[in-house]
Fold:
Amino acid sequence: MTDEQVVVKYEEEHIAFVKLNRPHALNALNYESLCVLGELVNEIRVRRDLRAVVFFGEGKAFCAGADLKERRTLSPDQVRRNVLKIRDVFTEIENLPQPTIAVLHGFALGGGFELSLACDLRYAAKHTQFGLIETSLAIIPGAGGTQRLTRLVGPMWAKKLIFTAERIQSDLALQLGILTGVEEDFESAKKKAITIARGIAENGPIAVRQAKFAINQGQNVDLTTGLEIESQAYELLIPTKDRLEALDAFAERRKPVFLGE
Ligand code: CO8
Structure:
């Protein structure tokens, strides 16, 4: 480990912020960053008071992908270790019970783009460049990109983007359904993400988690199974105090206060 804090977590009210913090390397992901990222994600997972998570990058980019300088020094087994690690960490991010939002600016390339694809929502600054550029390095997207991008944009566009390794700008990424929204610059994209996170945090937290669970689990199953997952997720909400609080608040013409109980 180095003295540098390669990934930083802080919290504001019910929202966790995870900042990639290797700006001198455009937040490229080395093995240490992946390990710290994984630890922080697992700390967030068990926190009932955290209701949304915002990921962003320090400096002039979100993330330029795998650390190519480190990669050059690795044996094939160490490369396998890194690929397994990145895949596991991104799956842990995807499976976080809290909604996740990525704020993208500068570059979101390779593993950096794949990290954002593991998040639920993506807001980008106008001039951000996106690309699953791995085939230009004689590898393929190995951190979920071939699967998650395809589910978002369909196989034709996923193939075009991955085969050509092209970098696209925010406007096309928005058009393709990769982005939830585009803002003028990093600050406004982050502000937008925080506004969305705060809005989410005001809703019933158990309901939001159950909704995320039902959507994620239902994506890869047939409709009948998906409807059964939804029904079970709903069932868990019936005995909650928050559900009764919502009904009381409606009757009393006030805003509900949800405690996550
Ligand atoms: N790894 C390490 N260092 C990097 C990386 C990187 N990916 N990207 C940028 N840097 C460093 C540069 O070397 C430079 O450092 P220094 O000043 O010490 O030389 C600093 O960041 C700033 O970069 P540039 O001067 O190059 O900045 P530019 O604005 O001129 O260019 C680019 C920005 C276009 C993003 C350019 O830096 C670039 O092409 N970077 C490489 C992008 C890339 O190919 N990423 C890898 C994609 S493949 C991948 O992510 C595979 C993931 C799959 C699983 C991985 C398991 C771990």
Summary: The two ends are 40 Å apart (CA to CA). The pocket of octanoyl-coenzyme A is lined by residues 25-26, 28-29, 64-69, 82-83, 86, 107, 109-111, 133-134, 137, 142-143 (CB under 6 Å).
